[in-house]
Write a structure and sequence with these properties.
Distance between the termini: 69 Å
Number of domains: 2
Largest sheet: 2 strands, antiparallel
Oligomer: single chain
Low-confidence stretches: 195-207
Helix content: 55-70%
Radius of gyration: 22 Å
Structural class: mainly alpha
Number of strands: 2
Mean pLDDT: 88
Strand order of the largest sheet: 1-2
Strand content: under 5%
Length: about 280
């Protein structure tokens, strides 16, 4: 019994199995209520920071979910803020799948705006900030790196940067590579195209699972689009033209194989596939 003001209150025992709300459930519910409000999404870093202070740790799929939901709302700037404050928020980019979602969030920002001039430039900057963050020790910059593929050298990750730079040049710079970023990102992408070819020829797109195939579409639609747009911008100055053409052929085959699998799924499932939507939007 405790005294509160002039009243005596009897405390009740707390059942931790049902009286304490799920931390993860609370985060998911909060994100669902944020909708597309920038003001609401601005609270995400504080929410994650509070959870980390309380000792909550997230699995990779949960970090993917957080970044994906923010990205779907076009809030790549919030993702960048969380990533930059990873020591406080816990949103670390130590798994390539989380890195991909962060990059895709940047791309989605530009797409949702209809490739608006300002939003496309900001989306590119956000993607560059994600790439810069990967150099920090909190993510992939430490001398001893986590197991797995280094996302800084993944063609599909670089493909998002290339697409955003190339689309900005095509749509808002009269087709000119004003600041040299199209050529810069194409060169980086070209230097990793061997990995892209291997990925494109992998058996992952030949499985019967629509989710796996749709994930391949998410990975390779931006890279394909970026190389095609960059070829238009750079013309004869396109680095390693023959290698680029060969990679584009492989990527087109990968996209077709993956889209066939997704299209063969049930209609109610097909409509939910992000990768198929990206592919159809770019045709």
């Amino acid at each position: 019994m405790i005294e509160i003001g002039s009243e005596t209150v009897q405390l009740q025992p707390l059942d931790i199995t049902k009286d304490i709300p799920s931390s993860w459930g609370s985060v998911v519910q909060a994100m669902s209520l944020m909708g597309t409000s920038r003001a609401d999404w601005a609270n995400l870093p504080s929410l994650l920071e509070g959870m980390k202070t309380a000792g909550r740790r997230w699995q990779v799929w949960q970090l993917e979910k957080v970044v994906r939901e923010a990205g779907k709302a076009g809030m790549s700037a919030v993702v960048v803020e969380c990533v930059r404050a990873a020591g406080r928020t816990g949103l670390v980019l130590r798994d390539v799948r989380v890195v991909r979602e962060a990059m895709w969030a940047c791309r989605t920002r530009a797409v949702l705006s209809g490739w608006d001039r300002g939003e496309t430039a900001r989306a590119l900057r956000n993607a560059e900030q994600i790439a810069e963050a990967l150099e920090g020790e909190a993510h992939w910059g430490a001398s001893k790196r986590p197991d797995g593929v280094d996302p800084r050298r993944q063609a599909d990750v670089l493909g998002v940067l290339g697409e955003l730079a190339a689309q900005r040049a095509v749509r808002h710079q009269d087709g000119n590579d004003v600041d040299g970023k199209v050529e810069m990102y194409v060169k980086r992408l070209v230097s990793n195209l061997e990995g892209a070819g291997a990925q494109a020829d992998s058996d992952s797109t030949k499985t019967p699972w629509a989710a796996t195939a749709d994930y391949e579409l998410l990975r390779w639609v931006p890279a394909r689009n970026g190389l095609k747009a960059a070829r238009d911008v750079l013309g004869e100055g396109m680095p390693q033209q023959s290698l680029v053409n060969e990679a584009l052929q492989k990527l087109e085959t990968t996209l077709k194989d993956a889209s066939d699998i997704v299209m063969g799924a049930r209609d109610d499932t097909r409509e939910k596939r992000r990768g198929l939507k990206w592919l159809n939007e770019s045709e």
